[in-house]
Every structure is written in C-alpha cells, then in structure tokens.
Amino acid sequence: MPTASASAAPADAPVPQKGLHPLPAPVKGAVITVSDRCVSGEREDVSGPLAARLLRKHDVLVDAVKVVPDGVEPVRAAIEEAIAAGARVVLTAGGTGVTPRDLTPEATAPLLAVRLEGVEAQVRAYGLTQTPLSSLSRGLVGVTGRDADGVLVVNAPGSRGGVKDTIAVVGPLVPHVLEQLGGGDH
Length: 186
Known about the structure:
The chain has 186 residues and is of the alpha/beta class. It contains seven helices and six strands. The chain has a single domain, classed as Molybdenum Cofactor Biosythetic Enzyme, Chain A (3-Layer(aba) Sandwich).
C-alpha cells in the first residue's frame, strides 16, 4: 500500500480559498433596461437606476441607464454599443421571462464567448431564497472574450428584487472575473 508523502495535506485539511477583493480602480459599466412599457412611457424605469446604484457599490460606474424595447435586435444593439463605448460590465434588466417578447437571453447568447453557467445557477438559487418566481428567469451571465478586452455581460430580471438578487451574487465576483480576463491567476 502506498504511503502518503510528507508534503501531502491531510484529507480533512481545509481547502484554501481565494479571497474576493475589490477592484483596484473603478471600471466603466453599462445598464440597459429592456421594457416596451418603459420605452412607451407607460411605466417608470425603477430597475435600471437601482442597478446602477448597486453596481457603484462594487466600483462599476454607470453614467446613464439606457432604455430599449423588448426584442432581439434592440437589446443586442444596445449591448454592442455599450461594449464599443468601453464598458467592462454590462447589465441588462428585463426580458428574461417567458412572454413572447422576453428575448434578452436570445439577444445576449451570440455575443458571449463563454457562459458562466455556475453563476447563472447561483443567481437563480439565491433568488429562490427570496421568491419562487426566480426560477422563471432565463438570464444569462458570461464574457464576450477570454482576454483583457473581454466584457462581463449579465441578464437580470426586470424587477427590483431580481436586480438586487442578481447584483448580490455577481457584484462581488466582478473583480475576479475581470482579473482573470486580464490574465490573472485563478
């Protein structure tokens, strides 16, 4: 029977964990509210401004919230514009449900080089501690590339609670994701 080397950790030793650290400097972010009703003036956008305020607590600075109608093309164009303007983090709020016009994930998917399915699952799991409606969100989380130019893109539900839950999970991860895109260690 082989013997364990002297340098091997005991089986019950704690697994070292990488700490989550704040960003070394604030980064540019973008928030896009996806809502036919907000575009038409039928409803005030409260989720987008909330997202911008919550992201600021994670050193992601958003100049202004853009409001676009539901649908693949308006959402995709808005995400692409935000990326072209230098955003490192793009958060959409709305369009993640199951109505015929909820197409934010379909607009986002082709822009992602890598989906972060574990983060998506974590967002939904955390949301389920708040409301059973969280399981209806089809929001995606991913990056547009695997290099320093990669952008973190996050689809949050359009509700205030959905935005809070999404940022509660994703916000602390932003520095580590951006560090890895810049070539940092795991």
